[in-house]
């Protein structure tokens, strides 16, 4: 399997999976994609239907990472997808499923269900990919006797998923910047209570954007970056996307009895990483009817899928909402889909994303390209605080099921796209405990708390307060890498 850049296929540059594993953007500023999508055969679909999650992951990943020896890859997926890691769920049987499907009911003739993706260590779907990345990185670094210092900024979910994936991993340190005293007590405790010596929490005196700016400044110091082996694990990392392809297959098998059936998925979306994996599953031949993109008030993606206009937002136009992990001003993985939509024409992709930088967006409505969006199965919708709260309340009353704010955005938009006889699977992206304030507003009660998290907020915390100053963060990295 060869990988190319969405902006540069013309240059003939090709890479293996292992070569792009630890990297971010391609040199030309594009994103990596496989040169061709592997297709699944009817026989494979039949055989995969009954596989345990770890072995299904092996089958799918081996098509994309064929430069990793099969025995090694199988060992990695079996080490990653265990019931012990995905244990924050009602019973052992569900834990063994890794991503159990929870049936809600039938609405407008369509069976409606939730695919639970947030039973891992940080109670959000990002664990699904990040746990694999942790093991893949450790494996790849050990093979070449290398080390890596991961630097990142987080306002919550991504940072904690990265820390829980990398804790105790050989050859890896994590320096995670978060805005001091700006996260919820639960999120803060989740990150700062980690005592592993390879995890460093830096509480920046400022807001999330200050933390993000520091990461950019350090990354732009190329000499420092090379000397201290600085890397990232942001959402454009290809391995993260491909790890997410697996649960679309798992969800399909759980919701159907035969491979003649089709299903639709609704995906609460921000950076387009999760639903991009759904697009890839569909390109591989999984019988997906619709891919429903659900956004919150930050509706960049909904606007595109309704109108063909992609218009990134300025910081002042980006709202802080009660589904904060979807508060984005532009969707960093979107370029991968645009590349396929335009028939894989890197010159046009380059031009369009130059327009994004120079003019703030592009318009595909006039060209014939936008019409093809429906051929790829995409539709969309958006949600607001009021519809979110109403949906949490309605699902609780009707189905005795507590859902988080992001999943509620998914259910709200899914209901606008139901088709009789076609199962609709909403991806559950986080557990309610992470966003307790809105649960209390909607249900006038406390969110459910998995047993392992009782007393989390009173555990001792380990973090370093730093001013919003890139030099001070560099000094900290130097002092803690023993170079
Ligand atoms: C990250 C995240 C999302 C958005 O996922 P993308 O891959 O960025 O589209 C949705 N819900 C939750 C809870 C998240 O943490």
Automatic annotation (TrEMBL):
InterPro entries: Ser/Thr_deHydtase_PyrdxlP-BS (IPR000634), Thr_synth_N (IPR029144), Thr_synth_N_sf (IPR037158), Thr_synthase-like (IPR004450), Threonine_Synthase (IPR051166), TrpB-like_PALP (IPR001926), TrpB-like_PALP_sf (IPR036052). Gene3D superfamilies: 3.40.50.1100, Threonine synthase, N-terminal domain (3.90.1380.10). Coiled coil: none annotated. Pfam families: PALP, THR4_C, Thr_synth_N. Residues 2-81 form the Threonine synthase N-terminal domain. Pathway: Amino-acid biosynthesis; L-threonine biosynthesis; L-threonine from L-aspartate: step 5/5. The keyword Lyase applies. GO terms for biological process: threonine biosynthetic process. GO terms for molecular function: pyridoxal phosphate binding; threonine synthase activity. Transmembrane segments: none annotated. The keyword Lyase applies. Its cofactor is pyridoxal 5'-phosphate. This is Threonine synthase. It comes from Paraburkholderia tuberum. The lineage of its organism: Bacteria, Pseudomonadati, Pseudomonadota, Betaproteobacteria, Burkholderiales.
């Amino acid at each position: 399997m060869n990988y190319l850049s969405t902006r540069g296929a013309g240059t003939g540059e090709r890479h293996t999976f292992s070569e792009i594993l630890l990297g971010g953007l391609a040199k030309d500023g594009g994103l990596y994609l496989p040169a061709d999508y592997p297709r699944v055969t009817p026989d494979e679909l039949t055989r995969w239907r009954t596989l345990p999650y770890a072995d299904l992951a092996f089958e799918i990943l081996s098509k994309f990472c064929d430069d990793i020896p099969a025995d090694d890859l199988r060992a990695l997926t079996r080490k990653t997808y265990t019931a012990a890691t995905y244990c924050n769920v009602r019973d052992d049987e569900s834990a063994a499923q890794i991503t159990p499907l929870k049936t809600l009911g039938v609405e407008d003739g369509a069976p409606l269900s939730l695919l639970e993706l947030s039973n891992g260590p940080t109670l959000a779907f990002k664990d699904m990919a990040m746990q694999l990345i942790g093991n893949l990185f450790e494996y790849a670094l050990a093979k070449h006797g290398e080390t890596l210092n991961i630097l990142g900024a987080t306002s919550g979910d991504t940072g904690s998923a990265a820390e829980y994936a990398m804790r105790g991993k050989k050859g890896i340190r994590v320096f995670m910047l978060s805005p001091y005293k700006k996260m919820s007590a639960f999120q803060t405790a989740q990150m700062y209570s980690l005592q592993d010596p390879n995890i460093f929490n830096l509480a920046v005196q400022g807001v999330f954007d200050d933390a993000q700016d520091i990461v950019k400044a350090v990354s732009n110091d190329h000499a420092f970056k090379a000397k201290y082996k600085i890397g990232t694990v942001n959402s454009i990392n290809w391995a993260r996307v491909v790890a997410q392809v697996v649960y679309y297959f798992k969800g399909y098998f759980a919701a159907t009895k035969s491979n003649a059936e089709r299903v639709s998925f609704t995906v609460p979306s921000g950076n387009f990483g999760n639903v991009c994996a759904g697009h890839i599953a569909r390109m591989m031949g999984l019988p997906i009817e619709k891919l429903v993109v659900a956004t919150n008030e930050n509706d960049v993606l909904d606007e595109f899928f309704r109108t063909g206009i992609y218009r990134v937002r300025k910081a002042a136009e980006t709202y802080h909402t009660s589904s904060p992990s979807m508060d984005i001003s532009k969707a960093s993985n979107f370029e991968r889909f645009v590349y396929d939509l335009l028939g894989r024409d890197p010159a046009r992709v380059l031009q369009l994303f130059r327009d994004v930088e120079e003019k703030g967006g592009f318009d595909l409505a006039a060209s014939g390209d936008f019409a093809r969006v429906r051929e790829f199965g995409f539709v969309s919708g958006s949600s607001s605080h009021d519809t979110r709260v109403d949906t949490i309340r309605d699902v609780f009353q009707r189905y005795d099921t507590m859902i988080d704010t992001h999943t509620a955005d998914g259910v709200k938009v899914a209901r606008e796209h139901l088709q009789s006889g076609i199962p609709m699977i909403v991806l559950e992206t986080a557990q309610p405990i992470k966003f307790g304030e809105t649960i209390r507003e909607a249900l006038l009660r406390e969110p459910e708390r998995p047993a392992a998290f009782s007393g989390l907020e009173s555990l001792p915390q380990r973090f370093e307060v730093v001013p919003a100053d890139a030099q001070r963060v560099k000094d900290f990295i130097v002092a803690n890498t023993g170079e």
